[in-house]
Design brief:
The chain has one domain. Helices cover about 20% and strands about 35% of the residues. Strands 1, 2, 3, 6, 7, 8, 9 and 11 form an eight-stranded antiparallel beta sheet that branches. The longest helix is centred in the last third of the chain and has 17 residues. The protein is globular and about 45 Å long.
Amino acid sequence: MATAMSLIKAYMTEQIPSDGGFIITAYFMPGSNYSIYEVTAYRNVKDIYRTGDGITFKTDGNRTHLLVEPPTYTNKHVEPVNREVGKSVPYRFNEMTTLGGGKYEKIMIPEKPLMLYSSFTILEKESDFFSYLFIPTKDVYVAIRKFMADSLYNDCNISTSVSKEAAAKLLETVKKFTIFSG
């Protein structure tokens, strides 16, 4: 089965493959279940370096997001793209599928991925976050789906059934990534 490695550890030990991979990053807001996940795929890296903001990849990529909105979030009416810094994702409500959780939380998943041109940065935040690197193998999609379902259940307190449904829906968008085609 495909395995995950901390992105920071992979960078420090020079184990980030230049021919491609998947990176799952999650940002958790302190004192809330409000969470943002990013799934980024890349290929043919020209350079990788660390800055004060995070790890920058000089290459093209694809990215999608998953947003967990707790029932106590007060700006539910604001489009995700227009939310305050640190709580926004680059999508509108009509571009996302919304799943309801058993505790009245909402899980929002974009229908289509974004294309990242020339470079992108995986941000390192001071608060709660993680970044894991998945190396493409035959079963990498299975590993990503399982990892996401486990994280939603353990880190966001989402029920098992909704976590699995959200992970499967996210994987549908990840499979639309074009970075590995052609």
